Amino acid sequence: MAATQTPDMKDRRRRKTPMARRESRFGVNLILPAVLVVALLVVFPLLWNVALSFQKARLIDIQDVSIWGFTPTLNNYRTVVGAHDFWPVLKTTFIYTIAGSILSIGLGLWAALSLQKAFKGRAFVRGLVLFPYVVPVIAAAFVWQVMLNPQFGIVNEWLGRFGVPAIDFLRTRSYDLSVFGLFHVSIPLALTTVIVFEGWRYFPFAFLFILAALQSMPEDVNEAALVDGATLSQKFRYVTLPALAPVLSVLFLLRFIWTFNKFDDVYLLTGGGSGTEVITVKIVDWMLGRGNVGAAAALGMILAAILLVVVGLYFKFFYKEETA
Amino acid sequence: MTRAEFEERFFGTLKWMSIVFFAVIALFPLLYMLALSFKPIQDLLLDPGKWWPTLEQITGFETYRAVLRPVDQGGFGFVTFIRNSSIVAVSTVILTLAVGILAAYSVARVNFFGRQTVSIGMILVYLFPVVIVAIPLFVMFSRMGIRDSLYGLVIVYLASTLPVTMYMLRGYFQSIPVSLEEAAMVDGLSRFGVIRKITFPLAAPAIAAVALYVFMIAWNEFLYALLFVLEKRELWTLSLGVNQLNTQEVPKTMLMAGSVIISLPIIVLFFAAERFLTEGLTAGGVKG
Q1: Domain ranges of chain A
Q2: Which chain A residues are within 8 Å of B281, Cβ to Cβ?
Q3: ipTM for the complex?
Q4: CA distance linking residue B184 with residue B200, whole number of Å
Q5: Quick check: A148 contacting B, CB < 8 Å?
Q6: For A264, which of B49, B111, B223 is closest by C-beta distance?
Q7: Which CATH superfamily is domain B75-284 in?
Q8: Does A159 reach chain B within 8 Å, measured CB to CB?
C-alpha cells in the first residue's frame, strides 16, 4: 500500500536522528484524533458487541446493561440459531448477495464496453448512467415501489397492455411462470426483484471501475489482435476479458462484502417480507422488533464470522492466482 | 459477409441500443418520480398510464406544499427535517475534514511508528459491517443520554466517514510531488506551514470531492437515524421523514414529492462536481 515511498524516505526511517524522532512525534500527533475517534466509536463498540452477545440484554432494561459484570451465557446464540427461519435467512442472504453482486458487475461491464469509445455526448451519458448510484437509497427504493405497484404502477400498466394480469412484484413470494404453456417454473419473485434493484443501483459503481481499467489498457495489444485478424468477440474473449480479470475480481469482493452487510435496500423495498429477509434485516428485527439486544448482537457476530470466512477463502483461492 | 464484418455490424448496432438502454434505465425512474410528485393521486388512479402532470399541476405545487407544511397545519413538517439533515450533514463534513485531512497527511507523508498498521486498520474498518457497530453504539449512547440527539448522529457519521476520507485523501496526498514540500521546507516553512500553504491548496479539488461524498453519505443515511432518533419527531432527518410517508394513508404522489426533496440537493451537487467525484470514486472506491 505504501509502495510510493521513495528510497530516501526508507533511509530516514532507519536512522533515529533527533529530526526523525521529531517527525515521528509530528506524525503521531496528526493522526491521534482520527485514531481516537475510530478506537472509541468502532473498535470499542465492536468489543462491546462481543460482550453483549454473551449476556442477557433487553431493550427495556438497557440502562442496566453492563460491560463487565455479567454471567456469560450462550443463550443468545442458541436463540438465534434455533429460530425457525435462521437457515432460510442465511440462504436468502447468500442468494441475494451473490446474484446482486454478479448482476451489478455484469451490467457495469456491459455499460463500460458500450461507452468505451468516444462519441458525441458520451460525457453526458456517462454522468446520466451514474444516477442510480447517486440518488438517496430511500428515494430509489420508493420510486421502485411505486413503479411496481399493482394498482397504479407504470410497469403493471405496460404489462397490462400485453394482457398480463397485475403482479405485486415486491409482495409475491413465488410466482408461477408458464412458458408458452409448455412448462412451468416457480420463481421467487420478491427476491428476484430485490436482486434486480441491487443490480440497477450498483452497476454504475462497477461501470466506473471497469471503464477506468479499459481506458488504461495499452492500445498496442488491441491493435496486435486486430492485425492478427481477431473478430470483436474474439478480441473481447482473449484480450479484454483476461486484462479485466483483476478488476472484476476486486469488484466482486467489494460488492460481496458491501451487499452482504447491506440493510437499507431490502428493508425499504420489502421490509424483509415475502422471502426477502436477509441477516441485517433480521438483526434489526431482533433489536427493535423483539427488543432482544443480546440476540441481535449474537446474530451480528455470526454475520461477521461468515464474512471473515468468505473473505479468507477468497484470498486463499483467488487472490494468489492473480498476482502470480 | 465475413464473420469479422458481421460482428462489426452486429456489435455496432448493439452498442447504440445498449447506450439507449442504460440511459433509459438510469433516467426513467427519476423522471417518473419527478412527474408523479406533481400529480394528485386521484388522477393517477384513474389512468396510471398517463403519468406526466399538466402545467397547472406543476405550477400548483400541491403535494409539495402539503409535505413541507408544519404538522400543526396538517402537513408533514418537512422544513424541520430539511433543517436537521442540513445541520447534521454540514457538521459531519466539517468535523470529518478537520480530523481526516491531518490524519491522511500523516499516513501519506510522515514517517512514524505504526503508520503501516494505521493504514491497514483504516481499510479494515471501512469494510466492516455497520450493523455490528450500531448495536453497541445504541446501548452506549442510550446510557450516555445522547442517543436521541443530533450530536449522537454527527458523532456516528464522523466515525463512519472518517476511514473513506482518510483513504481517498491519502492517495491524493501521495500523488503530490514530495519535492514541492521539501522545497517549501528549505525555504523555511514549518511542517504545519507546508500543510497549510502547499499541500492544502494543491489538494483542494480532492478535498472538495471528499467533502461532497461525506455530505452525501450523511444526508442519505438511514439505519442510524432509524435506530437513534426515531422516537423524537422534531429530530428526524429527511430520510426518516420520507420513510414516514410510506404508509397506506399517505398518497404515493406525496411520497414521491418527499423523495424528490431528499434527492434534489444530492443530484445538483453531483452534477456541479461530477468530474471530481468520478475520479475520486475510482481512486478510493466509495462504499455503497
Answers
A1: 78-119+190-323
A2: 205, 208
A3: 0.89
A4: 13
A5: no
A6: B223
A7: MetI-like (1.10.3720.10)
A8: no
Identify any residues that bridge with A184 across adjacent strands, giving them in sequence order.
A178
From chain A, pick out residues whose CB is under 8 angstroms from the CB of B33: 139, 143, 146
In terms of CATH architecture, what is A78-119+190-323? Answer: Orthogonal Bundle (1.10)
Q: Chain A contacts of B99, Cβ < 8 Å?
A: 33-34, 37
Q: What is the pLDDT of residues A186-245, one digit of tens each?
A: 889 999 999 999 999 999 999 999 998 998 888 787 778 777 878 888 888 888 898 899
The residue extents of the domains of chain B are 3-68, 75-284
Q: How far apart are CA B110 and CA B102, in angstroms?
A: 11
Residue in B30, B45, B112 closest to A151 by CB: B45
Could you write out the three-class secondary structure of chain B?
A: CCHHHHHHHHHHHHHHHHHHHHHHHHHHHHHHHHHHCCCCHHHHHHCCCCCCCCHHHHHHCHHHHHHHCCHHHCCCCHHHHHHHHHHHHHHHHHHHHHHHHHHHHHHHHCCCCCHHHHHHHHHHHHHCCHHHHHHHHHHHHHHHCCCCCHHHHHHHHHHHHHHHHHHHHHHHHHHCCHHHHHHHHHCCCCHHHHHHHHHHHHCHHHHHHHHHHHHHHHHHCCHHHHHHHCCCHHHCCHHHHHHHCCCCCCCHHHHHHHHHHHHHHHHHHHHHCHHHHHHHHHHHCCCC
Predicted confidence at residue A3, as pLDDT, reads: 47
**Which grid cell sits at B1?**
459477409
The residue length of chain A stands at 324
pLDDT tens-digit map of B176-223 = 888 888 888 888 888 888 888 888 888 888 888 889 889 999 999 999
What are A165-175's pLDDT values in tens digits? 888 988 888 88
Enclosing H/E stretch for A61: none
Cβ-Cβ contacts under 8 Å for A25 (sequence gap 6 or more): B112
